[in-house]
Amino acid sequence: MQKVLNQYNVFIFLVALMLLAFSAGAQKNVRLNVVCSNEANKIIKKSHVAKYYNSKEDAVSGARELLYNLYGQGYLTANIDSIKADSLKINVFLYVGEKYTYQSLRKGNLDKYLANEINFKESNFDGKHFDYNDLLKTSEKLLSYCENNGYPFAEFKLDSVKVSGDKIDAAICFNKNNKITVDSIILKGNSKLARGYLYNYLSVKPGNIYNESLISRIDKKLRDLPFVNVVKPCEILFTENNAKVFLYLDKKKASSFYGIIGVLPNNQTTGKILINGELKLTLLNSFGRGELIDLNWRSISKGTQDLKIALSYPFLFATPFGINYKFTLFKQDTTYITLNHNIGIQYYFSGNNFLKVFAEIYSSDLLSGSGLETLTVLPDYADISSNLFGIEASRENFDYRLNPRKGYLLHFSGAGGIKKIKKNSSINSALYDSIRLKSSQFKFLINGKLFVPLFRKMTILFNSDNGYVINNTIFENELFKLGGLNSLRGFDEESIRVSYFNLLSCEFRYLFERNSFAALFFNAAYYEKNTYNSFVHDIPYGFGAGVSFDSKIGMFSIYYALGSQFGQPVLFKQSKIHFGYTNNF
Predict the structure, then answer these.
(1) What share of the chain is helix, strand, coil (3-state, %, to 5)?
(2) Range of 133's domain?
(3) Domain for residue 560, yes or no?
(4) 207 and 147 share a domain?
(5) What are the backbone angles phi and psi of residue 535, rounded to the nearest 5°?
(6) What is the pLDDT of residues 93-106, one digit of tens each?
(7) HEC profile for 454-508?
(8) How far apart, in whole angstroms, are the C-alpha atoms of residue 313 and residue 321?
(9) Of 109, 213, 235, 332, which residue is most buried, by most CB within 10 angstroms?
(10) Domain containing 189 — which CATH number?
């Protein structure tokens, strides 16, 4: 009973922490009062400017926004005559004036190619009211196109302007000025990034024409890299026809190690020992080329071994291509052992977006034939091999990759090929007559994340994970594994075996530091376990609270979760505490 109360207290503490973090926000209590003529009041209502603000300064900014809205509607002589303020109200005395229309807006010296690029047509302006915003959009399209195509100093203005009553006649005067080329990228600081990696990751290389859209994203992309620290924003030095890009980067600890190993005597075999525990080693950017070496070994129950190795080398030979290799070994006590090799070639787009083609070689073999001789049906496990070929694609757009507040991720992996079931010499050969020993097999994995920002430091994460293996005869040793910190919280790590699953989760986060947050979450899944001998389906769900925070000695994550499956009630005594720790070096 005491244990249940202690777990209950942990849950209440985490929820209370979240409620304290979320209970912030000032009340809007300063009113903006616009004083003008009755006719002008009708026009102002169309602008939909807020009436209440947090401060006097915000209310004055709202009045300026109203003025810009009037310009956009063609009231070019609109003006704020005066502003008077008291403790709870801002009185703005506004003059609206006459509404102006275009007689014509001619393309002037704008060449035909540029006019086509921004879809500019003189007929779109003839007789229309003078919309400042439309004119601004036209100039922004022109300037943006030129900035991204080598002309960052292009100039836009109106020429030959004539005003007759409420009619305006004008022509565009546009100058591209000098063409600019990227001369070099100069790296300052103690970071030792290879130039080839840097050029391809940023999509900015010496000799390229100047592209403002790429230059403006440099700092964000660099901050997304876990192994560099952006000391200060990048700087651009322009000469007559060239641009030098200065980057200020220091090395940041990104490799990590975590390990717990236990050595125990084997009670079943005298003189033998059992080794269990967990070991995680991640080497990131050790050679300055953004490469990854990742090793993850676990032995959390008797006789079970789980080893995962991942190797990745991006931008091979300073090209957009990279290589990727994954190896998995899973040994289930004395039942079976599974080996999986996945090797692929990735093509990197901008940032972390990529397209990958891969080959997967899978084999799973029974370890013991003991007791199989007397079976009258095939066992739940089988000797299996498969060769699959597939495509993997990923696209992401986060405001900050390591701890996003807004943005999205889409990830897809699909593979197909031939699966073979091998006859085990310990099993009656006749039992295999009812199944196809060689058949087509397909595997799909789809993941989507969406961060929706709330207020200034809050966000809601919507996550969807989906997996499907398609084959006529599926055995236990080729199923997906669900459960744990990184999938279905509230359940033991990889404790649920499935052939099809759809997992949905919603997580409410308060970001109290750049790399730290507190969260409340709910996750649920529908799954099917459709194997040769059985069919099971369920809708397990879990909920709870957690904290993830960065410290000088590493990154900690702790989640308290409750779960239910097969319609069972939620019990505090079956709650789970998911803990994660990464020590960077």
Answers:
(1) 20, 50, 35
(2) 101-175
(3) no
(4) no
(5) -135, 125
(6) 888 888 888 878 88
(7) ECCCEEEEEEEEEEEEECCCCCHHHCEEECCCCCCCCCCCCCEEECEEEEEEEEE
(8) 9
(9) 332
(10) 3.10.20.310
Evaluate whether residue 4 is within a structural domain: no
Residues contacting residue 23 through CB under 8 Å, at least 6 positions apart: none
Q: Let me know whether 79 and 133 are in one domain.
A: no
- Do residues 373 and 366 touch, judged by C-beta distance below 8 A? no
DSSP conformation class of 98: P
> Last residue of a domain, which of 95, 117, 135?
95
Domain-located, residue 49: yes
Residue 524's H or E segment, with its range, is: strand 516-530
Tokens of 565: 């499956």
Show the tokens assigned to 520.
């409340």
Residue 20 has a pLDDT of 47
Do residues 42 and 69 both lie within one domain? Answer: yes
- Crossing angle of helices 38-45/56-72, nearest 10°? 90
Same domain, 107 and 170: yes
Residue at a domain's end among 124, 157, 175: 175
Q: Is 6 exposed, middle or buried (0-12, 13-18, 19+ CB in 10 A)?
A: exposed
Q: What is the DSSP string of 225-254?
A: -TTEEEEEEEEEEE-SSEEEEEEEEEE---
Do both 219 and 197 map to the same domain?
A: yes
Phi, psi of 568 (to 5 degrees): -75, 150
Cα–Cα dist 18/518, whole Å: 6
Q: How many domains does the chain have?
A: 3
Beta bridge partners of 257: 281, 583
Q: Specify if 585 maps to a domain.
A: no
Burial class (CB in 10 A: 0-12, 13-18, 19+), 111: exposed
pLDDT per position as a tens digit, 211-250? 999 999 999 999 888 889 999 999 999 999 999 999 999 9
What CATH code is carried by the domain that includes residue 71?
A: 3.10.20
Say whether both 185 and 140 belong to one domain.
no
Q: How confident is the model over 297-346, as pLDDT tens digits?
A: 988 677 788 999 999 999 998 889 999 999 999 999 889 999 999 999 99
503: left (phi over 0), alpha (psi -120 to 50) or beta: beta
With tokens 């994460």, the residue in question is 461
Q: How far is residue 354's CA from residue 411's CA, in Å, rounded to a whole number?
A: 10
Q: Per-residue DSSP letters for 392-443? A: EEEEEEESSTTS-SSEEEEEEEEEEEEEEEEPPTTS-GGGGGGS-SEEEEEE
pTM for this entry: 0.76
Distances (CA, A) of 213 to 286, 305, 494: 30, 48, 43
